[in-house]
Amino acid sequence: MRDVAVIGAGMIKFGKTPEYSPAQMGGDAARSALEQAGIDASRIQATFCGNIGNAPNLAQRVNGEMGVSGIPAFNHENACASSSAAFRQAVLAVAHDLYDYVLVVGVENMTVHIAMGVVGTGPLVLPHGANLEADNGMLMPAGFALTGRRHMHEFGTTAEQFARIAVKNHRNSARNPYAQYQRTFTLEEVLHSRMVCDPLTLYQCCPIGDGAAAVILTTAEMARRHTTRPVFVRGSVLTSGRYKASAEGPPRIEACVRAAQECYETAGIGPEDVDVVELHDCFTIHELLAYEDLGFCPKGEGGRFIDEGLSDYGGKVVVNPSGGLLSKGHPIGATGVAQLVEVVWHLQGVCGERQVPNARVGLTHNGGGFGPGNEPGAMSITILST
Q1: What pLDDT is stored for residue 20 in this prediction?
Q2: Concatenated DSSP letters for 30-79?
Q3: What is the DSSP letter of 206?
Q4: Which pLDDT score is estimated for 123?
Q5: What pLDDT is attached to residue 328?
Q6: What is the mean pLDDT of each run of 10 residues along the chain (386 residues)?
Q7: Which of 54, 97, 203, 338 is the most exposed place for a label (fewest CB within 10 A)?
Q8: Euclidean distance between CA atoms 222 and 214, whole angstroms
Q9: Are the CB atoms for 158 and 302 separated by under 8 Å?
Q10: Catalytic residue positions?
Q11: Which CATH class name applies to 137-205+234-385?
Q12: pTM for this prediction
């Protein structure tokens, strides 16, 4: 197989832009990635698109925005991991000599979903006062809150420790011009924001928003012809949950543990080698679990990890320098590629005041939906390096 590299990465500012069509968003992100790669859209041989429910044939529509037609276009839906799943398929396509240059784009316009009251074929929001859980059962905040409560019971983790993750990520987003929110919060403000599902308060939950992100992939050999700052794909793993995987033992996301172990082995590194991480902090509890599941600290010590600043600048590994899903935003289909874009930029050294110093190895962690055993329906881990 051929080695694969990223030669261009781009995204648009996340926010609420219902007037901005998904194809337009994807086209703008793609053009930004092409500009960084220094190639024309006519060089793209295939497009891989992640989106959860905006439009059929969205990859083809994004191609149209770039003035491209007649090439293979692949559309992927895998809940919140839609575009990271698209990225993995694109990596495999280049590695197996199917294409030399491919575009991967993630897109979502969630404010359109809200206006329609749907995401895909199911309900996203209902009018104020409607009893959504009565019709649909436990929703995402409750699922993570239960896991967080169990972690508190098992290990003495505190509500303040979960809240410190939100303080860190909101602070990071204030330095990110692409973030949906650029406001800092104190620990007290996070703890006293509206209760969503104990111990999760409002500022510990990711927002609704719109956005798009894109990367250009080619072979490692060709990458060196285009840029002095290629970023190499060292490992890309996609897995899903298993029945009863998390029913016994301490709280964990077993699919994450498996995917991370496989990705570390493929890349030939360990968690101690990672400099920068963009992980799926849909809720603060998920970030704390990921500290442990990705091997950055022992099981049960995620609270200490955040207390001691080990996931912040100057710590052991910088986690979510973009602000993460909590503050950068979580336009569902765009999230996986947006994480990759952020890590690529840090490895290229182009992140300005939020730059992670001397970043050489980066990791992205992107979960999607619920699958068997209350595990993720999809779990994607990617390792990149200079």
Answers
A1: 93
A2: HHHHHHHHT--GGG--EEEEE-SSS-TTHHHHHHHHHT--SS-EEEE-BT
A3: P
A4: 43
A5: 98
A6: 98 96 98 98 98 91 97 97 98 99 97 60 45 62 91 97 99 98 98 96 96 99 94 98 69 92 98 99 97 98 98 98 98 98 99 98 95 84 99
A7: 97
A8: 19
A9: no
A10: 80, 330
A11: alpha beta
A12: 0.94
Query: How far is Cα 117 from Cα 126, in angstroms, rounded to an integer?
Result: 7
Nearest CA to 240 among 377, 77, 367, 368? Answer: 377
239 with 21: CB under 8 angstroms?
A: no
Q: What is the pLDDT of residue 269?
A: 98
- Cα separation of 337 and 279, whole Å? 12
Assigned CATH class of 4-120+209-230: alpha beta
Six-digit token string for 347: 């490895």
Question: What pLDDT is stored for residue 135 in this prediction?
Answer: 58
DSSP reduced 3-state for 108: strand
> Which residue's structure tokens are 């104190």?
186
DSSP state of 334: G
Stretch (H or E) spanning 145: helix 140-155
Q: What is the pLDDT of residue 140?
A: 82
Q: Could you tell me which of 286, 290, 299 has the C-alpha nearest to residue 260?
A: 290
CB 25 within 8 A of CB 109: yes
- Of residues 168, 172, 174, the one with CA closest to residue 190: 168
4-120+209-230 shares its CATH topology with 137-205+234-385: yes
Three-state DSSP class for residue 220? helix
User: What is the token pair recorded at 29?
Assistant: 């992100």
H-helix or E-strand spanning residue 285:
helix 284-293
The ranges assigned to domains in the chain are 4-120+209-230, 137-205+234-385
**For residue 106, which amino acid is it?**
G
Residue bearing tokens 């926010």: 15
Task: Name residue 15's beta-bridge partners.
Answer: 210
pLDDT at 124: 46
